[in-house]
């Protein structure tokens, strides 16, 4: 039987196929089909010549929700809210992405004002029902929604997070009046008191559900045609997988599916090598995503957004994303300054050197022109590359306007992209209170290993790790995840007015619900793990920090000390004299599934068997002879002194002259500055 990990990227769809009987692993890449990502998945599996009937499980990381939200290819939706609160989605928080730019408005709301309806009902801050739901008024609203042909409905009542009784009644009426509609209630999606954030999250969840349904129906139908009768699980942004049914209920969790797969891929490399602190650099064809692992845990955040002004209040990896992938376009602004990204040529037409009609110079073109990329090695030689087209695009669009030779212009493109990547690493580390010199840079994606050494050198990062299949690491990450659900219960009370017993009672109740969910998905108790945490803040603050909590709940003064320490690390100050307020209890329920492990490779110190020859590369303003190695012929213990290039089907690793590299037992390449 096989288990397949799939990562649908902006340019390529990546596959890692694991034979569960032999332990063998195959990797494969296939161009993404943006109009129907499911088609690219099935075509890729066909080209990999896999027997569909022998595939037991496919785990998919997908950007279908992200792309639908960015491009606004979403269904029309209606909102039903408490009378007097029709403008919450439009008013937002009144903030700006750039505080000084008064001409740049945030993106318009995902639901138009004419489709926002008010009904009579009211619950106060303490959960007391001040006014029962007006059922007849709601039925009248349903008749309007029905006439307009709207099949996506959001229910958002004020203070429903503390007492959802009116929302529950509204959902019951809606199911009867609009039986075919997708209905999302805010108390189920995000039971927190921030009204705008709760509404925004619920709207995104509602409009994403039909997108997920269409994707899954298409994928399952095409897979069935070829004899697949296994299960499909989807990667969600909380660091786990979920069933298609769960994905329909919590579709917004798929918005961060792609970044999470990359972060978990980096995490799996750390687990295999014993690394506690690492920075993941996932640079693919469209973007570069930077994540952080500290003390053996992926750094998470409780709020994020795809577009500014539309927050999603759900756990997600803390990822900095920039337009610095292989397809990122190099361009010159009105002041004559060169930029790289955020515009990307994507998979179609792609970089100029792809020969598909693209005429803009890209980062991939620059790496081909300078000799860092072998034009005969793209997808292991399956993809034809035209270096002369890349040279022409760089010369015409960058070289001539700036008075540079083609080689100088190409290296300039690479240097700008590297600076962008280094700045992204600064944002995830230094700006968060971490010193990058205390971390290992785990570089992957199609172009990450090409630029890792230059990024590390700019930031003083002492060591770099390159996974065995860098271009497939996100697909590997999908095979290292468990089923995961997250529950949050708002519980606002000062720590001094609580006892461990109070918190234990709340967590015990939440755990009962979590066990019911996971048992319902087929997990035995011994395969269920529970993680507890408290959202805490200083009294009077708005934002909170998530602090892990032991089971059973220990001494509260120890929990307080953890909060003070984390607050000091995050914000560079702490205030032990101030009162601490508990904002919410969080529970993560994990259903453990068998993992695919990194295979071990044969030992052998001599790297001469992997030596392929040498190639002239334009590097740091000069033409340098780089030794070329075949990644799959390197053995555990092999050592390589730069300047060298390691080639494989899915990526290329560049090792500059001042670096030494070695290979560990799992085939991971480590390198660091000579003499360190």
* Helical/strand content category: alpha+beta
How many structural units, i.e. domains?
6
Mean pLDDT over the full residue set: 91
CATH topology of the largest domain: Rossmann fold
Radius of gyration: 26 Å
Low-confidence stretches: none
CATH architecture descriptor of the largest domain: 3-Layer(aba) Sandwich
Span between termini: 45 Å
Q: How much helix is in the residues?
A: 25-40%
SS strand fraction: 25-35%
Q: Can you tell me the overall shape? A: globular
Describe the structure.
With 676 residues, this protein is α+β, with helices and mostly antiparallel strands. The protein has six domains: 2-69 and 212-256, ATPase, nucleotide binding domain (Nucleotidyltransferase, domain 5, 2-Layer Sandwich); 74-209, Rossmann fold; 258-324 and 418-478, 2-Layer Sandwich (Nucleotidyltransferase, domain 5); 328-416, no CATH class; 483-591, Dna Ligase, domain 1 (2-Layer Sandwich), CATH 3.30.1490; 608-673, no CATH class. It has 16 helices and 35 strands. Strands 13, 14, 15, 20, 23, 24, 31, 34 and 35 form a nine-stranded mixed beta sheet that branches. Strands 3-2-1-4-11-12 form a six-stranded mixed beta sheet. Helix 5 links the parallel strand 9 and strand 10. Helix 4 (135-147) packs across helix 5 and helix 10 packs across helix 11 (387-402).
């Amino acid at each position: 039987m096989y288990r397949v990990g799939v990562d649908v990227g902006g340019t390529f769809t990546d596959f890692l196929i694991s034979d569960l009987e032999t332990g063998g692993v195959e990797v494969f890449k296939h161009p993404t089909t943006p109009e129907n990502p499911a088609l690219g998945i099935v075509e890729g599996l066909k080209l990999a010549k896999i027997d569909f009937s022998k595939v037991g499980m496919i785990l998919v990381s997908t950007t279908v929700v992200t792309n639908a939200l960015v491009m606004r290819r979403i269904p029309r939706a209606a909102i039903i809210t408490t009378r007097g609160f029709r403008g919450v989605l439009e008013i937002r928080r009144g903030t700006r992405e750039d505080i000084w730019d008064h001409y740049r408005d945030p993106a318009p709301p995902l639901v138009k004002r004419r489709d926002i309806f008010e009904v009579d009902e009211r619950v106060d801050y303490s959960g007391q029902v001040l006014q029962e739901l007006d059922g007849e008024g709601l039925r009248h609203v349903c008749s309007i929604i029905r006439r307009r042909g709207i099949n996506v409905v959001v229910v958002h009542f004020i203070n429903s997070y503390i007492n959802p009784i009116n929302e529950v009644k509204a959902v019951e009426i809606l199911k009867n009046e609009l039986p075919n509609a997708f209905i999302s209630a805010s108390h189920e999606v995000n039971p927190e008191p921030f009204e705008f954030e709760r509404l925004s999250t619920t709207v995104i969840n509602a409009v994403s559900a039909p997108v997920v349904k269409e994707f899954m129906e298409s994928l399952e139908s095409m897979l069935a045609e070829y004899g697949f009768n296994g299960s499909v699980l989807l990667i969600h942004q909380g660091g786990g997988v979920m069933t298609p049914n769960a994905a329909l209920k919590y579709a917004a969790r798929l918005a961060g599916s792609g970044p999470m797969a990359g972060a978990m891929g980096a995490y799996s490399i750390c687990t295999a090598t014993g690394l506690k602190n690492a920075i993941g650099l996932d640079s693919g064809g469209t973007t570069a995503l930077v994540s952080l692992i500290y003390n053996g845990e992926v750094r998470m955040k409780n709020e994020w957004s795809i577009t500014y002004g539309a927050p999603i209040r759900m756990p997600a990896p803390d990822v900095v994303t920039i337009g610095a992938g292989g397809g990122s376009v190099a361009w010159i602004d009105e002041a004559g300054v060169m930029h790289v990204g955020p515009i990307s040529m994507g998979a179609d037409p792609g970089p100029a050197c792809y020969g598909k009609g693209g005429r803009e110079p890209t980062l991939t073109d620059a790496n081909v022109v300078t000799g860092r990329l072998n034009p005969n090695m793209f997808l292991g030689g399956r993809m034809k590359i035209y270096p002369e087209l890349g040279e022409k695009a760089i010369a015409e669009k960058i070289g001539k306007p700036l008075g540079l030779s083609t080689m100088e212009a190409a290296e300039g493109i690479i240097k700008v992209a590297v600076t962008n990547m280094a700045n992204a690493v600064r944002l995830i580390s230094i700006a968060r209170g971490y010193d990058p010199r205390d971390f290992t840079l785990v570089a992957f994606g199609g172009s990450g290993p090409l630029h890792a050494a230059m990024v590390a050198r700019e930031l003083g990062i002492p060591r770099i790790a390159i996974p065995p299949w860098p271009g497939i690491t996100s697909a590997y990450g999908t095979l290292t995840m468990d089923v995961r659900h997250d529950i949050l219960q708002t519980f606002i009370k000062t720590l001094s007015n609580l006892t461990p017993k109070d918190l234990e009672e709340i967590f015990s109740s939440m755990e009962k619900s979590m066990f019911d969910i996971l048992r319902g998905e087929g997990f035995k108790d011994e395969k269920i793990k529970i993680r507890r945490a408290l959202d805490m803040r200083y009294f009077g603050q708005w934002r909170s920090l998530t602090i892990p909590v032991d089971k059973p709940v220990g001494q509260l003064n120890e929990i307080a000390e953890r909060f003070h320490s984390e607050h000091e690390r995050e914000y560079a100050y702490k205030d032990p004299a101030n009162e601490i307020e508990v904002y919410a209890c969080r529970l993560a329920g994990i259903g453990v599934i068998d993992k695919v492990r990194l295979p071990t490779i044969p030992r052998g110190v001599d790297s001469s068997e992997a030596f392929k020859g040498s190639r002239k590369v334009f590097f740091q303003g000069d033409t340098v002879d780089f030794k070329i190695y075949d990644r799959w012929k390197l053995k555990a213990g092999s050592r390589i002194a730069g300047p060298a290039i390691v080639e494989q089907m899915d990526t290329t690793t560049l090792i500059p002259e001042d670096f030494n590299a070695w290979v560990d037992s799992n085939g991971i390449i480590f390198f660091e500055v000579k003499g360190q």
